[in-house]
Amino acid sequence: MSADERRARILDLLKAEKRPLSGGELAKMFGVTRQIIVQDIAILRASGNDIIATSRGYMAAEPVPLIAKKVAVRHGDAETRDELMTFIECGCRVLDVIVEHPLYGELHGMLMLKNSSDVEEFMEKVKRHGATLLSRLTGGVHLHTVEALNEDSIKMAEDVLRKKGILLK
Fold first, then answer.
1. CA neighbor of 96 nearest in space, from 134, 144, 27
2. Which of 49, 73, 92, 136 has a beta carbon 3.0–4.6 Å from 146's, enabling a disulfide?
3. Cα(93)–Cα(12) distance, rounded to whole angstroms?
4. Is 102 exposed, middle or buried (0-12, 13-18, 19+ CB in 10 A)?
5. What does the alpha-carbon distance between residue 103 and residue 105 come to, in Å, rounded to a whole number?
């Protein structure tokens, strides 16, 4: 299989799958190294394909946009799971986390959390890797881009977060 054929097949797989595919998983499928997959993804992106890299792997961006909003919040590490679950329980997806760094400007971390299992997996990875949350760079202040089928879901999440003292406004 040529590199172009492999890239076309990777793109087909990403579009067909509803879950992220890791670089290691793709490497095994195609009998190449993970680094080759990383290069393939970079080439596919440079060719105009909308591929998202999450902490769980690669995904093709969904073509149908939902209602999206940036929500400003502030909390400590201990409230992270509660904050993320609030969005999910109100019918929102959490696409990313954004912080304003004094040197680098906006820093984005792709989350792509769609359900409670995604939140639990994210929290487990934070714990397992001893990872530092981006919000620590800004004293807990950060933004999330959230999506929902309707504005009511986002408003409901904001109301709950406001009551919990997490929403900034």
1. 144
2. 92
3. 24
4. exposed
5. 6
> What string of pLDDT tens digits covers the 169 residues of the chain?
899 999 999 999 999 988 999 999 999 999 999 999 999 999 999 988 989 998 889 999 876 668 999 999 999 999 999 999 999 999 999 999 999 998 999 999 999 999 999 999 999 999 999 999 999 999 999 999 999 999 999 999 999 999 999 999 7
| Number of alpha carbons in the 13 Å side-chain half-sphere of residue 40 | 24
| Structure tokens that stand for 67 in this block | 């209602």
Please report, as a single letter, which amino acid is at residue 11: L
Q: Do 54 and 111 contact (CB within 8 A), yes or no?
A: yes
